[in-house]
Design a protein that fits this description.
single chain, about 180 residues, mainly beta, about 70% strand, globular
Length: about 180
């Protein structure tokens, strides 16, 4: 049921008129610390970020691998959706309050896969105008997440993305391309 709801929300977001929308593809690399042991993480991700008036909507999926966890490479899939409200103009930058829902499934060799989901409020700051560098920064339950969307040369539609995330047990850096529509 949740898969159907998630799919419907994603599909409906593509049909809504927005002030600015970005579809992006990116690669993410980082490391995760579990009980003092460090593991490398790599993933690819697809996402949609859209603003309309004072509302910010984003959704995305990622798939990747945690390398060499006690002799195993563990595959994972994550999905997320968030909705926020800006208390000013997103064209010039504004504080944002919102909530996000995420779920993940991690391969567990020799046993059932590990599944988890979480809903968290977040506070942040964002500028989404479609002009110049756009960005979004948020803090949620100890997770700091920042993404910049940077114009590529004279082309107004294609952008580069650069992101950084940090929590107690994970650090990651992401980069990719985005298309403004």
């Amino acid at each position: 049921m949740k898969n159907i709801l998630f799919s419907l929300l994603f599909a409906s977001s593509l049909m809504v008129h927005a002030d600015v929308s970005y579809g992006s593809f990116g690669l993410e690399n980082g490391d995760i610390d579990v009980d003092g042991d460090g593991f490398d993480v790599s993933a690819y991700q697809f996402s949609l970020l859209s603003s309309s008036g004072n509302v910010i909507f984003s959704t995305g999926v990622a798939s990747g691998t945690v390398d060499d966890v006690y002799g195993y490479d563990l595959d994972f899939v994550t999905q997320g959706i968030s909705l926020g409200y800006a208390f000013g103009s997103l064209e010039t930058g504004s504080f944002v309050l919102g909530a996000s829902y995420s779920r993940a499934e991690l391969q567990n060799p020799g046993s059932s896969n590990i599944k988890t989901n979480d809903t968290e409020p977040y506070v942040g700051y964002a500028k989404l105008s479609g002009e110049g560098i756009d960005y979004r920064v948020s803090i949620s339950d100890g997770l700091f997440d920042a993404t910049a969307i940077i114009p590529l040369g004279d082309n107004d539609d294609w952008r580069a993305t650069l992101g950084f995330a940090n929590a107690d047990d994970i650090d990651s850096l992401s980069f990719g391309v985005a298309y403004k529509f």
